[in-house]
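Anyone else keep sequences and structure tokens together like this?

Example one:
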Amino acid sequence: MIRPHELLVGEGTKFHYICRPWTSMLTLRIVFSEDVYSETADNNGISYLSSRMLLEGSERWTSKQLNVYMEKYAIEAVALSGGLQFTCLVDSWPKLKIVLQEILQRPRLDQGRFSKVKRQVEQELKSNFDDSDQLAHFHLRQAVFDKSPGNLLSSGSPESIGLIREYQVRDYWTRNLHAEGLRIFMVGSMDISAIQRSFETVLPNVKTDSSFINEIPFIEPRKQIQQKFVFKDRKKASIAMGHIGVKRWSKDYTCLKLIDQVLGASSGFTSRLASKLREDLGLCYYIYGDVCSSAGRIPGIFQIMMGTSPDNVEEAIGQIKVTIEELLSEGPELMELEDARSYLLGSMAFSFETNHSLVQLMTEKQVYELEEDFLVQDRSRLREVTSQEFHRVARKTLDLSKLHSVVVGAKSLDSWAEE
């Protein structure tokens, strides 16, 4: 059961807390009202850049002073797309409160800080896009989602970050740094009443008529199937294939986790894709495929990612399709279904192992409006899925005729559109 304490703190911020009396660590996640789903192609990345800017100091502290303070008390901070996450020892909670007070109540944005962070983010994203796997996945998203919000990236692209101006970050802070613009998820060992009192002085005391935004954008996938080649001078070719997937609250989600394990998500050579293309045929360095990992408030992608020799690209793509077709035609073997079921049931225990995993579960429960016992329901559903249901859901969800394909490498393919 995911049954956190849920209460209002400060001027009315919703706070979700799980007490683990034995833990010496504390994890706190702040979620802002606006995330990537509130963005457009022109400001994609504003949620991440605005969160990142909050870690660049305050009206009283420079970036260096803030970093020295957090390092002194072993406070780790990570900027998210539309949020922040902190980890520290429980004993450092009084120090973390000071950090939160500074960055949430007294954020400072000046041209020097803004330009520096913007350059850093652009360079980080350019480095990411230099990786052929990441570039292939980016173009797959563009192929699947066309111009709908599904093609937006959680951190933006180098081009979209370059378009963002200082005033847009300031406006983002104005819209989000108030009681109704925040959600807080926390795991620690402190008493709930003490925690509630602590937040009285930490959170912004700005009052506004704005409310927490939880709108879901309309997603229309591309109808025309794309085959795209992107030149990248690499010895390895990266292949990305896929089509529109499902939302997190799909009634087939649990069954699809089993399908993922059998087809391409399991580790080693146990999945069908890895067993056939890597172990039997030697056509790839690695291969992975799944539906569920990208499922969210909007449909994710049924995606297959593979690294191979440029000479093997066309044969590998053909064998991927053959492997999927075999699963859709024949359904699962009893042993592979039971192995996948046993693995998923066993791994569910790790969902409660760390503070971070509990914070993630609380966030999912709130964002996707799941029931308190959604993990118990998942466990029951995993036990109930039959071979027939597996086969039916696989045939309904996976469609070879809708697969988009992207190849990033040095050797072009005949009749493929070149980027």
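And example two:
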Amino acid sequence: MLSQKDNEALTRVGPGAPMGELMRRYWIPAAFSHQIAKPDCPPIRVKLLGENLVLFRDTEGRVGLLDERCPHRTASMFYGRNEQAGLRCVYHGLKFDVDGSCVDAPCVPQVGEKQQQKIREQLRIKAYPCIERGDVVWTYMGAPEHKPAFPELEWTMVPGSHRYATRHIQECNWLQGLEGGFDATHLTFLHGGDAEKSRKIVATMYEVLPTDFGFVVATGRDPGNGSIMWNINVMLMPFHKVISSIPHAAHVWAPIDDENTMLYSINFHPSRPLTDEDLAREKSFRGIHTENVPGTDCAIRNRANDYLIDRALQASGESFTGMKGLGTQDCAIQESMGPIADRTLEHLLASDAAISKIRRLLLQTLKDHAAGKPLPGMSPESYRVRSARCDAPKGQPIADLIERHVRVETQVAAE
């Protein structure tokens, strides 16, 4: 059980909320680069951490992320004209560059140049810096003096041929997604019929260790042969998971607002292009990627249609849920808890040990941030990690396994 106060602290992500302010200390994915593929292409709407924004690529190829509201009369900049190195509001013609500066105010031709300059200075629009990595546009929404270097997320550093990424809207709070991602026991049940054979053994050992990048969650399964099958997954602040699969995989739970999340799902290989065989399960929507309504971020199997659950398939035993795909199964259960799960109603069990520890670590990170203490993940090199699966003798310290299997000395640079 979590107190209402702590639940609010962990789930609210808007401006001024403790978790929202913490997340603003990190780079956040805003969109895929192909969504604004060409200079002067149409802008797109973006909502992050409860803020309504507009993303565009200017004439020179630079990317800008602006407040959707024009500072003049609060009209939407989404309808703006993307032209001549700026986004122009169609209401009165004011134009803003990627840095948020007003560079043209044609609606007041009657004033002199000095007054024009003063007006332009007063009409600055809120803008967030952007960077492109891994064919994704990332933004930093925090105080400029705290802006960190972009982290060395391995999947963003490999060539495009080594990576496959999709995204979709998850209709619940970000924490439900993150907790589901690190809940090892559900693999045996929720994904029954789809999970690998090793996952059919229920995990009985749970370790959560804080690190310089976030934390490591290690879950052990005892097959009865004197060794432990360890699944070691890394959480990189503030909302990343690297999945211990082949090829490697990752999730990013980027909060849209308190009640919706943009879930990015990625498969990647560090040293070679992905093959058709690598992606066969994913492109048939049986893996972590969802099948979306064409041209949207909305999953075809969603809450409104009960995820197209097939009760006959469920009854057959071939699928524990009767739902197609690991990603759909995860979203169905996480969204079924409500837009923001009421954790005061929970009755946690021994199998939830990792979830309890994760919550305590996140709450402590909020306290450290409020106290001005150093935060995990501020060093780009700290993200040089991979999740791993390994067998080890009973009693071997988890810290030894982390150093041997999780830390990566060097990573490839993207072409």
